[in-house]
Every structure is written in structure tokens, then in C-alpha cells.
Amino acid sequence: MPAGFPIGCGDTGSGRPLVLLHCSGADRHVWTRMMDVWAAMDNMPPRRILRPELFGCGTTAAWPAGQGFTLDDAVELVARATGELDESFDLIGHSFGGAVALQVARRMPSRLRSLAVIEPTYFSLLRGAGDVADIHFGEVTSVARTILQGAASDSEADRQRAMGIFIDYWNGAGKWAAIPPEVQKAMTAAVHAVTQDFMALFSEPTGLSDLRHLQVPTLIVNGLLSPAPVQHIAVLLEATLPQVERCTLPDAGHMIPLSHAKQLAGLLAAWYRRRDDASAPAADICRRILAGA
Q1: Is the distance from CB of 122 to CB of 99 less than 8 angstroms?
Q2: Could you tell me the CA-to-CA distances from 42 to 46, 191, 271 in Å, in that order?
Q3: How are beta strands 9-13 and 89-94 bridged, if at all?
């Protein structure tokens, strides 16, 4: 990562630091709904919230053309964005941001107080993890291949179709068609960031055995209506990580920070409170949030 590389990063509030990593093709604003819920909570302690924007997203410059991009490059971006913090921080990542967050936990565990991953797309964990995992890996590989082919085209129509496949895969069939054409055009500008993220995920050599000794308290949040490969990654992570809890939202798909911002904010706030108060039973958190308490 070149010195002086421009990184966009929202930085608001004061208190114990919390870092939020967005999904592929989005920006810092994907967290706005959840932050608004936190702001209205009486029992949410003050936080300094940093929202780095990943390469080619928001106000962060695109990754240099022709240079290979890896998850470790994204880790370096996070390291630079949080470099001035003089204490450990809580880290939350969604989708591709969840994969980056797991890589951050691998590379610099001493800097993390805790880790929460929402629908993490750490696809390399599926590779060689059993027959079911292989089926899921084949599914997402096929989808990614189609998107990559369209994104590489000189045709704007092909690139728009590629972005449409990406949006519909993660949000459900018909979502792209419901988006106004002028918004589709603007969203298609992010297709190259989407493809670089896919390539980083599929080239990553990390497997489940590399995570077995990760001593960072971790919360996994997934939706029961999300694509099967990501649901299976959540299951594998729960079975692998030594300090882990998992909560599945039965009526949620992949875009939980947008579709279920209130539930997610409550779940995370409860998890942080329980970590500060060891007398609160872990199993009660998910049940309480799902019941609407």
C-alpha cells in the first residue's frame, strides 16, 4: 500500500473505540441506521466510532491498477485508519468487511478487544472443509466468475448486468430491477471494487485450521435467509473459533445492517454489556433480542 494513500474514514464521538468495516461496494454510510439506533439508546455507553472506507469505496482511492490485491492489503488500510488509537478497540465487519475483520484479528490480535462479524464472506474457509462446504464453494465461485466476466467487459451494459447479478445474489432476485436506472448506473461504478474484493477472497490461502487458536472474543451474526454459502461459513466459524458465540436472525438475509439495523444494534449493545458484566448469561442475549426486548 503506497505511502500517503488517501483513506476515507468517518470518526465521530468519544469513548472506547469501535471500528466498523462495511461490505463490498458500499461505504461508511451503510452503518448510519445502526448508529442512529445506538444514539437513541439510554444504556449505550459513549463510543468513538471509526468507519474506514475500503479501497475504491466512498472517498478512499481505488487500489492501484495492475497490482494484486489481497486481504492483507485491506488489513493494512485498517491498521493505518486506526493507527492513532492508543488502546485496543472493538471491531465489527459485515460481509467482505467481515472477512477483512477476521484477517485483522489474525494479523494483529493484540489490538482487538473483541470481534463481531456479520455474514462474513471468508470464502476460502469453505475450501476443503467437507462435501457440503465444497458444494457451497462451487456455488459462490460460479456466481463470482459470471460477475468477473461481465465487469471486465468494455460494454457498460455488460458491467451493469454484472452488478445486477451481484446485487440480486446478496439481496434476492428482482432487487436490481426495482432500482431506478440512474441509481443502477451510479452503483455500477463500484463493480471494479466488487471484483477486486472477490479476487482477494478467492486467492486467500487461509483455512479453518489457521483460525483454531484465534484468542479474540467473537460474535457471529447471520441471517437464515441469506445465501447458503455464507450461512455455512457462519456454522464453520462457530465450530472452529475458541471464543465464539453465534446469533442467527430467522427473518434476515445478507444485508442485516440495513434491513435489521434495530435488532443488530440491540444485539451488539447487549453483547458488549455482557462482556462488561460476566453475570449476564450469554445464551439470553440472542433470545432476548429476537423476542423484541
Answers
A1: yes
A2: 10, 40, 16
A3: unpaired
pLDDT, residue 291, reads 47
Q: For position 292, what pLDDT does the model report?
A: 47
Q: What is the per-residue pLDDT for 293? A: 40
Parts of the chain with a pLDDT under 70: 1-3, 278-293
Angstrom distance (rounded) from CA 218 to CA 213: 12
- What CATH number does the domain located at 9-129+206-290 have? 3.40.50.1820
State if pTM tops 0.85.
Answer: yes
Per-domain residue ranges of the chain: 9-129+206-290, 131-202
Rounded CA-CA distance 22/40 in Å is: 22
What type of residue sits at position 251?
D
Distance of CA 3 to the CA centre of its chain: 25
DSSP for the chain, written as a single string: --TT----EEEEE-SEEEEEE--TT--GGGGHHHHHHHHH-TT---EEEEEEPPTTSTTSPPPPTTS---HHHHHHHHHHHTTT--S-EEEEEETHHHHHHHHHHHH-GGGEEEEEEES---GGGGTTS-HHHHHHHHHHHHHHHHHHHHHTSS-HHHHHHHHHHHHHHHH-TTTTTTS-HHHHHHHHTTHHHHHHHHHHHHH----GGGGTT--S-EEEEEETTS-HHHHHHHHHHHHH-SSEEEEEETT--S-HHHHTHHHHHHHHHHHHHHHH-TTS-HHHHHHHHHTT-
Residue 64: what pLDDT? 85
pLDDT tens string 143-168: 999 999 999 999 999 999 999 999 99
